[in-house]
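#lab-general

N.A. 3:47 PM
ok so I finally got the sequence cleaned up, no stray characters, all 148 residues accounted for. can someone with queue access submit it? mine expired

B.Y. 3:52 PM
send it over

N.A. 3:53 PM
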Amino acid sequence: MLFKILIILHTLGATVWTGGHLVLAVTVLPKALKNRDPDLIHNFEENFENFGLVCLLLQVITGLSLTWIYFPGWQNFFQFESFLSVYIAIKLGLLLATLALAIHARFFIIPNLTKETLNSLAYHIIGVTTLAVLFVIVGAGIRVGGLS
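B.Y. 4:20 PM
back already:
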């Protein structure tokens, strides 16, 4: 029962995180770039950021819990003998890349966001959105026994 609840919570977190970034990248970002209006992104972030980060944290907690179920005590995880350990390692790498982009954007780009620096943030948005979609693809691979 716990396993199923973790899967549901993990999936809900992924839905919000990935869906929010897809909305940002596909609808808000093009308008902001066309009009050179960073306020459009600020407004979206103001409404999404806290909930999105909570959902990302939910994914991290449930993902680590699921990993613990698959690999109790992390036994055999680092041997990468199964698609499962490889896919989980890929997801951990995607998480690190997401955190790096998010931290860089939050502390270096967003505080100084202007019409002139909007393109820098656009690259971050596209990067985080791509990583979020890859999270979903790899996660689906875990649930269906691999993607090959």
